[in-house]
Amino acid sequence: MKKLPIGIQDFVKIRENGLHYTDKTSQLSTLITEGSTYFLSRPRRFGKSLLCSTLGALWEGKRELFSGLAIDSLDWQWNAHPVIRLDLNAGNFTVDSYELKVLIFESLKRHANENNLSIVEDKSALGAMLESLIYELFKSTGKKVVVIIDEYDKPLLNSINNEALHEEFKGILKGFYGVLKSADPHLSFLFITGVTKFSQVSVFSDLNQLQDISLDPRFGDLCGFTQAEVERDFAELITLFSREHSLEESEYLYRLKRFYNGYRFSQKEITVYNPFGLLNHFTNGQFESYWFSTGTPTFLIKLIEEQHIDILALEKMEVKSSEFADYRKDLMLAVPVLYQAGYLTIKEYDPVLKLFTLDYPNEEVRTSFAESLADKYAYAPEQTRTSLLVTFYRSLKAGNVDGFMETLVPFFASIPYDLNDQTERHYQVVFYLIFRMLGQFCETEVKSARGRADAIVEVGEYVYCFEFKLFDTAENALAQIDDRGYLTPYNGSGKKLVKVGVSFDAVKRNV
Is 447 in contact with 454 (CB distance < 8 Å)? Predict the structure, then answer.
């Protein structure tokens, strides 16, 4: 098994050091031969930088690095072109605009120096500087220039809560990206990546020749690993870790898929693994939240709160295809941004109604996002949550329903009065978060549509069905479980089926 490129997103370094590389070059051939100006949106840490690096090496004609890869046997001419690569992922962009200006200035200046060119050098006129570099490269080589911009929107995302700085960044980027339109006669290829779209930035208003491939079925798996690629390229590690977990390979693959797969980026029914999470898992075999832990969704949770998004409706939420097309700071809708950022993904598509059904991609995101939401909706510190979840799990695994319910009493009592609106919805949200967090230990299914049980939990030899009631009795909750046959699908499972009716007292604010 080749060494894994953890934290390495440089194609040249990966190939020269013999590190693992999942071959996507046949799709790059399609990308290059069928168009010339593209935009691709993908979540953070999803392989965009490696994709940009690979494209750069391809356009520079470094054929030796592609030996044995798909494109080496295709009809690619390997003519070297001058390449300008700009990576905005290197900055923090939270204090002032100086860092952005310096980063762009130094990057363009380095490209000029490497090619022995004299260009306009002016931090206050970065667009003119880029235009000058493109023209001088074209003039000195006689070949059209390739421009690759990675994470174009990082300054905008990092300044989203600082309106003055955000507007300043938009002004800088508008002037900078705007020159790519006039420079088009000297460009052979333009590729821009980011997480989200901001329609008010000229990269999308002036650059009307850009082809957005973010939802293009041809490139739905351009970033990330498909199931077939995982089973082919990581076969040795799958065998190793399935043995370490004392699991059959099929069961280990099921857990792997449930935890890290599930991202879908087009109408085409193909899903991919998050490469960052999967590669980190393959370093030690542990099922941890590697991707989620590298970024906190504080801004998104604030959006959810401000826009009164129903937490229970985030699963199986339907949105129009047009809602993916416009992201403005003054009208940033929480649900489409949750999709762009990778916290929700496409589960289904209705071509007649042109509706996407969104849901959490996998157990890593579902569980970790529930933990983040619990800070706001359940008011439980992380250490307290961990202790409670362990107690909940152990009680359910032992068949101790009373122990589970007794633990709930102090938990609900700890929620401050002003955070408890005494509605059935509030109690359902708290229970929803509890069971979603329990998902890291056992199989859970929480109500996401009318007519389903409030929660199904499968742990050890037990299957539990929970039904919650406010201003009603636990007996009626139990009757509903029977009347609607919530446990019927589990009759042949050989497990002990347990129905649990839960009634809340709005006055006592507890079970």
Answer: yes
Residue located via tokens 């363009």: 108
pTM higher than 0.90: no
Tens-digit pLDDT profile for residues 399-423: 999 999 888 877 776 665 544 455 6
Q: What three-state secondary structure class fits 447?
A: coil
State how beta strands 211-212 and 317-320 pair: unpaired
| Of 291, 140, 322, the residue nearest 223 (C-alpha) | 291
CA 184 from chain centre, in angstroms, equals: 32
Cα distances (Å, whole numbers) of residue 439 to 155, 250, 309, 363, 378: 35, 20, 22, 7, 17
Tell me the three-class secondary structure of 163-218, residue by residue: HHHHHHHHHHHHHHHHHHHHCHHHEEEEEEEECCCCCCCHHHHCCCCCEECCCCHH
Average pLDDT over residues 100-114: 96
| pLDDT attached to residue 188 | 96
Confidence of residue 331 (pLDDT cuts 50, 70, 90): low
Two tokens at 22?
Answer: 């999942």
3-state percent helix, strand, coil for the chain, nearest multiple of 5: 50, 15, 35
- Cβ–Cβ < 8 Å for 201, 174: yes
Instruction: Determine the average pLDDT of the residues in 49-60.
Output: 97
Tokens of 66: 């592609």
Residue 43 has what pLDDT? Answer: 94
- Torsion angle of the four alpha carbons 59, 61, 66, 72, in this order, in degrees rounded to the nearest 10: 90
- Residue-level pLDDT at 301: 83
Q: How would DSSP label each residue in 349-396?
A: EETTTTEEEEE--SHHHHHHHHHHHHHHHT---HHHHHHHHHHHHHHH
Give kind and range of the element (H or E) at residue 136.
helix 126-141
Chain-centroid distance, C-alpha 353: 25
Cα distance between residue 131 and residue 117, in whole Å: 13
